[in-house]
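Take a look at this chain, tokens included, and explain the fold to me:
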Amino acid sequence: MTSIDDSLSEIKSVRNDIWRVRTLLQTELPDAERKIAEKRLLEQRSAFERLLATTFPLTLRL
């Protein structure tokens, strides 16, 4: 079982990677590199959402 500290560290790492890719996408990139970066961003966002759902499984609805 993973500790909460490990989970939070992984969430932070993925969040930082998302930030880096978003920053990269704001620059001039060749089409091939842009497609790779966009794919990476989608993968990281999915991983981020999955990590959040498993680390914080409870949701509150108003």
